[in-house]
């Protein structure tokens, strides 16, 4: 059986290991051989250097390299060639290598433990884990970089999405391969953008240059965010603001305490460090499912621009033309130009049926106003094209900004802006054509 490690991953790993081309032979796979420490040791002990790779449902790929034999003899073992790595985060290439700072505890050889790195740094699983109904495995280990391995200021969540649920764990024997020449690094890096400072400033500049179409009379795009309570809508807004300010922003109230739960419709402009505003507003909404009043009727009014900023939703009363502050004839500028559905990737399997129904209704309501979501399953469940689904990670516990977080959020934001731009260009040209047609009629009338 071929493993899930791609050629590109192998090229990246052999660069990290060093000393020329390597071949990778699959020794152990939890989906093929069962997830048990005994099986891991039966297949992987005394096989020389190995790579252990984990793949998760969010599309992240990370793992650890051991430069010496795995054994079942117990105790810590020195390995200054060992490292923990990340290759992909949420489907986007994010390459990081975390080397030991205390190599004397680089590996642990426990007969009831799988590949075990540091104390505790990266410990996939203990004993035996049974497979979940959906084919994933909820590993009982953890990723907590920083004790024996350097964390390079990358948070654990930015590697494993805050969860030890995996779709696969594989171990490969690594040996020198003189028959294969490695792909030059340059070629690999060009295929997809590396999320580094340079890329972040390039994409931030590009985003600042996207403006509503001329003739639309609109100064800023309205990007509406909807989703269940606690999905991360307010955090997403703060995270989007952060790369433009070069610090973590906390303007939108985050959290589940009663004063932090969003009850109002609030539109947030985004400022650059110099003070000027970008050409879009992020519109925060109350969460679906907390008696917040976010049902199909109210969402429809919101999409069409009948609701003013700071409007407080009520569960007991629907919005109507009699609601104080109701915008009777909203202009195109007041409508939602793009709708982003924000979902928490760790609870996507458990969304209540009523929430799914409402999200589906919302998609139908939004029609050409295209929709965003954060995980692949949503693409299927809601019938949204996969290239409109963007996994992102918000700031929630970090102290400092992170390049990978900025990269993912800016890529998602760019897609939202392009969707809004396309929708508005279509509307504006349709209006212009309408006006031309009217002008023709007037001329012939007066002739
Ligand atoms: N692990 C993790 N937690 C997050 C993320 N985004 C938000 N959170 C946390 O989830 C909780 C709810 O977030 P919030 O933005 O208030 O959700 P909202 O109700 O949709 O606005 C807060 O405790 C956040 O710190 C994320 O990307 N990863
Ligand atoms: Mg909120």
Question: Which descriptors apply to this entry?
Answer:
five-stranded mixed β-sheet, alpha+beta, six-stranded antiparallel β-sheet, 11 helices, binds guanosine-5'-diphosphate, elongated, Rossmann fold, 447 residues, 2 domains, 19 strands
CATH architecture of the largest domain: 3-Layer(aba) Sandwich
Order of helices and strands: HEHEHEEEEEEEEEEHEEHHEHEEHEHEHH
Give the low-pLDDT segments. 182-192, 367-376, 438-447
Q: Which ligands are bound?
A: guanosine-5'-diphosphate, magnesium ion
What is the CATH superfamily of the largest domain? P-loop containing nucleotide triphosphate hydrolases
Mean pLDDT: 82
First and last CA, distance: 80 Å
What is the number of domains?
A: 2
Describe this structure in words.
InterPro entries: GTP-bd, P-loop_NTPase, TLDc_dom. Residues 1-175 form the TLDc domain. The chain is of the alpha+beta class and 447 residues long. It has helices at residues 7-17, 30-33, 37-44, 157-160, 185-191, 197-209, 233-245, 296-303, 353-366, 376-382, 403-446, and strands spanning 22-29, 35-36, 50-55, 61-66, 76-77, 83-89, 92-98, 107-108, 122-123, 128-129, 137-138, 142-143, 165-166, 168-176, 221-226, 266-271, 277-284, 338-341, 371-372. The strands form 6 sheets. A 6-stranded antiparallel sheet has the order 1-14-3-4-6-7, with helices on both faces. A 5-stranded mixed sheet has the order 16-17-15-18-19, with helices on both faces. A two-stranded antiparallel ribbon has the order 2-10. The chain is elongated. 42% of the residues are buried. The structure holds guanosine-5'-diphosphate (GDP) and magnesium ion (MG). Residues 233-234, 262, 284 line the site of magnesium ion. Guanosine-5'-diphosphate binds at residues 157, 162, 227, 229-235, 254-255, 262, 287, 342, 393-394, 396.
């Amino acid at each position: 059986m071929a493993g899930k490690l791609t050629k590109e991953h192998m090229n990246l790993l052999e660069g990290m290991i060093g000393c020329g081309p390597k071949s990778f032979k699959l020794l152990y796979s939890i989906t093929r051989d069962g997830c048990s420490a005994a099986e891991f040791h039966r297949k992987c002990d005394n096989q020389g250097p190995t790579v252990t790779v984990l793949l998760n449902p969010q599309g992240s790929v990370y793992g650890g390299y051991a430069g010496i034999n795995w054994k079942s003899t117990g105790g810590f073992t020195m390995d200054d060639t060992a490292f923990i790595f990340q290759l992909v985060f949420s489907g986007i290439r994010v390459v990081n290598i975390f080397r030991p700072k205390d190599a004397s505890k680089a590996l642990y050889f426990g007969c009831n433990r799988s590949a075990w790195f540091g104390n505790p740094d990266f410990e996939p699983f203990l004993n035996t884990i049974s497979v979940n109904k959906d084919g994933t495995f909820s590993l009982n280990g953890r990723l907590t970089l920083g004790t024996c391995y350097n964390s390079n200021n990358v948070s654990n969540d930015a590697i494993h999405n805050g969860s030890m649920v995996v779709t696969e764990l594989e171990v490969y024997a690594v040996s020198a391969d003189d028959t294969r020449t490695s792909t030059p690094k340059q070629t690999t890096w060009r295929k997809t953008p590396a999320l580094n400072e340079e890329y972040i400033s390039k994409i931030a500049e590009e985003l600042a240059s996207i403006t509503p179409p001329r003739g639309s009379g609109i100064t800023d795009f309205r990007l509406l965010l909807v989703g269940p309570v606690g999905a991360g809508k307010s955090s997403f807004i703060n995270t989007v603001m952060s790369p433009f300010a070069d610090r973590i922003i906390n303007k939108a109230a985050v959290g589940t305490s009663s004063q932090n739960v969003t009850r109002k419709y609030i539109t947030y402009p985004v400022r650059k460090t110099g003070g000027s505003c970008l050409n879009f507003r992020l519109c925060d909404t109350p969460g679906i499912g907390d008696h917040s009043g976010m049902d199909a009727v109210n969402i429809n009014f919101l999409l069409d621009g009948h609701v003013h900023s700071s409007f407080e939703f009520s569960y007991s009363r629907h919005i109507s033309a009699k609601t104080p502050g109701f915008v009777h004839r909203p202009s195109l500028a007041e409508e939602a130009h793009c709708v982003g559905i924000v979902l928490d990737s760790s609870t996507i399997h458990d969304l209540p049926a009523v929430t799914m129904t409402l999200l589906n209704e919302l998609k139908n309501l939004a029609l050409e106003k295209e929709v965003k979501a954060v995980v692949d399953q949503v693409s299927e469940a809601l019938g949204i094209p996969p290239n409109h689904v963007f996994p992102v990670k918000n700031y929630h516990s970090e102290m400092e900004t992170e390049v990978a977080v900025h990269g993912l959020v800016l890529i998602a934001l760019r897609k939202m802006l392009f969707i809004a731009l396309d929708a508005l260009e279509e509307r504006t040209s349709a209006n212009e054509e309408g006006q031309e047609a009217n002008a023709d009629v007037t001329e012939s009338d007066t002739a």
